[in-house]
Amino acid sequence: DKSVVECVFVELVHDNVIIGCLYRPPDCNVGLFTSFVDSLLSKINRERKKCYIAGDYNIDLLKFDVHQPTADYVNCIFSHAYLPVINKPTRITDYSATLIDNILTNDQLQSSSSSIVLSDISDHFPILFQNSRKLKTVIQQPAKLKRSYTACNRNTFFNKLQHFDWDSIPDDAIN
Questions:
Q1: What is the pLDDT of residues 49-72, one digit of tens each?
Q2: Among 130, 133, 111, which Cα is nearest to 50's?
Q3: How much is the pTM?
Q4: CA 69 to CA 163: how far, in whole Å?
Q5: Residue 84 is inside which H or E element, if any?
């Protein structure tokens, strides 16, 4: 059973901003991922927060007009008033050029820019986004950690416990 998405988010409470990073494995069903994104963006919009979500979506936005699951994904993000800020290929090989990495945002500020860094440090080009939003300076407080106790997460945890090689732990480490 493949994961639909890997993600991490932080909230800048004083600025009413959420910043996230998503990864959709290439063999994951695009429809399931689109449903996840639909739910996620609905929740963020209900909270009336500005949001930036960077990621390797493994959905080629250049194929929205010939691949229905891609068109459904694009329609989903547009329906929540999010726009992708990258519009050129982010992964280029000898045989293909795909736009699978992007930054989505619902913060449509006039003075913003995005870039693709042409570099061979990875098989994907790094992407950047900058806008004129000014963040408030606040006194550093300890981070609040939160766990998601969904049935899927519990099952994954228990499965990993069952398949862990407990014999690999030295005896002197168990005390």
A1: 999 999 999 999 999 999 999 999
A2: 133
A3: 0.73
A4: 35
A5: strand 83-84
